[in-house]
C-alpha cells in the first residue's frame, strides 16, 4: 500500500538554498558573456566612484563661497566648478557605457533562456501538452522570461552601481564625521529587516500574479483560436466571464502586491527622510558649536542622501529579484520537466528503412483516463508497402494505434517494431523523419504556401516544391492566387478552404517522402468535389509506402490491401473488403449501416425537389 501523499512545506532554511540554486542556474546562462559583465563592472566602478567625489567638492564649494565673504578672488570657486563639470561628464560617459554593456548582456542571457526553454518544450511528448494549456506555456515564454529580463538587464546594472555607492558612501560618511555617521547608520538594520520581511511576501504574491495571468492567457488563447465556435454558440458573454474571472484573480493578487510594495516604499521613505532630519538637526548643532564647517555638513548630507537613496534603491532591486525568482521558478519547472519518451543512450540506425511495421502483443493506456486499456493484445505485422485500413466505431482506438507508430506515446506492454527494431531503440528524430502524417484537421503555419510545403523538406528546391504540389492536385489553385506560391495562408491556414489546406498538407507529406504514411480521416471534413481531388492526391501519395488509413467513409477504403476492424481496443476482424463482407460481423454491419444512411440522406434531398415539381 502506498503511503498517503502529504503536503510538503518548504522550511525557511531550505528556501535560501533553493533561491541560491535558481540564481546559480541563471548565472550559468550568463557565463558566455562574462567579458561584457567584467567590462560593465569596471565602468560601474568608475561611474559610481566619480559620483562619490562631487559631494566633497560641493562642501568645498560652500566653504569657498561663504567662508570667504568679502574676498574678490573667484579663482578657487572657478576651479571647483570646472572640476565638478569634468567629473559629471566622465561619470555620465562611464554610466552610459555601463548601462549599455550590462543591458546587452542581459538581453543576450534572456534570448538564450528563451531559446533553451522553447527548444526544451519541443522535446516534450504530446502527453505533456495534453496536460498543459498553450496559454500557460506561452505566458512562461513571454511574461515570465520578460520579468527575468528586467532583472538581468536593468536591475543587475543598478545592483552593481548601488553596491559601489553604498560601500563608498558609508566610508566617506565616517571620513567626514564619525559621530554623524553613527546616527545615520542606525536606521540601516531597520531598512534591511523591513526589506527581507516584506520582500518574501512580495515574492510569494508575485508568483500568484504570474500564475493567474498565465491561466487567464490560456483561457483567452482558447477562446481566440476557437472564435468561430464561440460565436456560433453565442458564447461571447460566457467567455467574457471566464476571462474576466481570471483577470479578477490576477488583479486581486496584483493589488495585494501593490499594497505590499507601497507599504515597503512608505516605510523606507519614512526611515530615510526621518534619519536625514535627525542628521540635519544634530549636524546643525555641530556647526553651531564649531565642530564642523557648513561645507562639511553639506557634504555629509549629500553622502547621507546618497546612502539613503541607495538603500531605498536596493530594496526596490530586492523586490525585483523576488519577482524574478518567482518567474524563474516557473521557467525552471519547465526546463526540469523530462519527456516520458526517453531516448536510447545508443540508438539503432534507421537510414533507409523498408517500412515493415509489427505490433507484438501491444497494449496501451493513457494512465490518467481510468484503468481500462485503450488497446489490448494487438498482434499483427504489416509488410513494407502495404496499405492497411483501420475501421471501427468511435473510441475503438484507431487514432491511438497510429499515434504509437511515430512514438507520440510509448506502448504500455509489448513491442512496436520498425524493420524488426523496437521503436524505443531508435532516435526519435530518425524515426519521425520516416513517418508522414496527414490528419483530419490540417495545421498550416501562418506563412506562405511555399513555406508550408517546404516544411516537409527544408532543403528542397522550388521545382521540387511545385512538383509535390502538382502531385497533390494543389498547383492549379495555388497559381490561381495573385501571389501564387507566396500567398500567405493566415494563422492555421484560415485563408484557404478545407480542401485546399488538405492538398497543401499532402504536398508537404509528398515532399517529405516518408516510408510510412498515416492518413487519419484525411477526407472526412470535405465536400464531394474536394474529397475527389484529395483522394486522387492521396492515392499518389500512398504508392510504394506502408500506409495506415483511418477513414470514416468505408467506401473510400474498399481497395485497401488489408482492413483491420477494431472494437474496444482489440482487433476482431482482419481481411480484405470482400472477405470481410462475406464473413459478416462488425465490418459488414458498419458498411451496411453507412450505406443505408447515405441512401436515406439522398432520399431526403430528393423530397423537396419532388414536392416543388408537384407544385
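Q: What amino acid sequence fits the structure above?
A:
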Amino acid at each position: 500500500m502506498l503511503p498517503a501523499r502529504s503536503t510538503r512545506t518548504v522550511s525557511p532554511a531550505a528556501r535560501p538554498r533553493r533561491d541560491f540554486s535558481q540564481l546559480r542556474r541563471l548565472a550559468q546562462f550568463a557565463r558566455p558573456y562574462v567579458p561584457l559583465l567584467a567590462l560593465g563592472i569596471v565602468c560601474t566602478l568608475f561611474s559610481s566612484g566619480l559620483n562619490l567625489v562631487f559631494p566633497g567638492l560641493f562642501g568645498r564649494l560652500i566653504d569657498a563661497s561663504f567662508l570667504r565673504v568679502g574676498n574678490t578672488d573667484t579663482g578657487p570657486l572657478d576651479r571647483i566648478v570646472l572640476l565638478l563639470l569634468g567629473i559629471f561628464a566622465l561619470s555620465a560617459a562611464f554610466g552610459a557605457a555601463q548601462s549599455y554593456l550590462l543591458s546587452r548582456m542581459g538581453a543576450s542571457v534572456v534570448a538564450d533562456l528563451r531559446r533553451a526553454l522553447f527548444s526544451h518544450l519541443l522535446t516534450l511528448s504530446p502527453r505533456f501538452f495534453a496536460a498543459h494549456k498553450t496559454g500557460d506555456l506561452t505566458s512562461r515564454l513571454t511574461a515570465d522570461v520578460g520579468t527575468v529580463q528586467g532583472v538581468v538587464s536593468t536591475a543587475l546594472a543598478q545592483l552593481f552601481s548601488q553596491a559601489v555607492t553604498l560601500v563608498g558612501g558609508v566610508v566617506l560618511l565616517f571620513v567626514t564625521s564619525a559621530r554623524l555617521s553613527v546616527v545615520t547608520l542606525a536606521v540601516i538594520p531597520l531598512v534591511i529587516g523591513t526589506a527581507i520581511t516584506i520582500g518574501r511576501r512580495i515574492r510569494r504574491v508575485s508568483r500568484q500574479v504570474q500564475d493567474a495571468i498565465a491561466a487567464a492567457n490560456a483561457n483567452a488563447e482558447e477562446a481566440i483560436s476557437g472564435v468561430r465556435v464561440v460565436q456560433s454558440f453565442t458564447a461571447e458573454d460566457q467567455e467574457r466571464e471566464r476571462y474576466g474571472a481570471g483577470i479578477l484573480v490576477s488583479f486581486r493578487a496584483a493589488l495585494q502586491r501593490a499594497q505590499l510594495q507601497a507599504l515597503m516604499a512608505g516605510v523606507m521613505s519614512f526611515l530615510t527622510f526621518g534619519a536625514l532630519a535627525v542628521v540635519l538637526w544634530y549636524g546643525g548643532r555641530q556647526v553651531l558649536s564649531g565642530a564642523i564647517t557648513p561645507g562639511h555638513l553639506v557634504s555629509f548630507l549629500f553622502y547621507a542622501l546618497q546612502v539613503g537613496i541607495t538603500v531605498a534603491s536596493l530594496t526596490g532591486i530586492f523586490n525585483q529579484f523576488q519577482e524574478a525568482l518567482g518567474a524563474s521558478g516557473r521557467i525552471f519547472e519547465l526546463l526540469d520537466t523530462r519527456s516520458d519518451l526517453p531516448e536510447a543512450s545508443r540508438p539503432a540506425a534507421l537510414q533507409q528503412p523498408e517500412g515493415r511495421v509489427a505490433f507484438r502483443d501491444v497494449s496501451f493506456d493513457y494512465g490518467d483516463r481510468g484503468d481500462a486499456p485503450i488497446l489490448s493484445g494487438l498482434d499483427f505485422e504489416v509488410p513494407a508497402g502495404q496499405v492497411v485500413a483501420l475501421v471501427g466505431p468511435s473510441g475503438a482506438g484507431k487514432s491511438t494505434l497510429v499515434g504509437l507508430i511515430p512514438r507520440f506515446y510509448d506502448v504500455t506492454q509489448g513491442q512496436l517494431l520498425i524493420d524488426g527494431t523496437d521503436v524505443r531503440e531508435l532516435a526519435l528524430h530518425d524515426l519521425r523523419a520516416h513517418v508522414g502524417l496527414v490528419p483530419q484537421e490540417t495545421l498550416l503555419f501562418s506563412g506562405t504556401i511555399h513555406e508550408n510545403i517546404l516544411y516537409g523538406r527544408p532543403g528542397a528546391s522550388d521545382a521540387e516544391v511545385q512538383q509535390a504540389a502538382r502531385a497533390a492536385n494543389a498547383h492549379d489553385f495555388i497559381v490561381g492566387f495573385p501571389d501564387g506560391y507566396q500567398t500567405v495562408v493566415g494563422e492555421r491556414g484560415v485563408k484557404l478552404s478545407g480542401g485546399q489546406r488538405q492538398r497543401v498538407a499532402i504536398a508537404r507529406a509528398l515532399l517529405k517522402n516518408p516510408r510510412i504514411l498515416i492518413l487519419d480521416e484525411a477526407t472526412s471534413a470535405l465536400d464531394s468535389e474536394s474529397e475527389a481531388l484529395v483522394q486522387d492526391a492521396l492515392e499518389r501519395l500512398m504508392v510504394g509506402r506502408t500506409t495506415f488509413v483511418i477513414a470514416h467513409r468505408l467506401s473510400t477504403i474498399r481497395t485497401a490491401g488489408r482492413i483491420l476492424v477494431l472494437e474496444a481496443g482489440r482487433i476482431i476482424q482482419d481481411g480484405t473488403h470482400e472477405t470481410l463482407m462475406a464473413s459478416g460481423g462488425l465490418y459488414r454491419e458498419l458498411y451496411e449501416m453507412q450505406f443505408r444512411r447515405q441512401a436515406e440522406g439522398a432520399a431526403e434531398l430528393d423530397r423537396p425537389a419532388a414536392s416543388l415539381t408537384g407544385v
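Q: And what stands out in the fold?
A: Residues 353-434+519-528+548-606 form a domain with the Rossmann fold fold (CATH 3.40.50.300).
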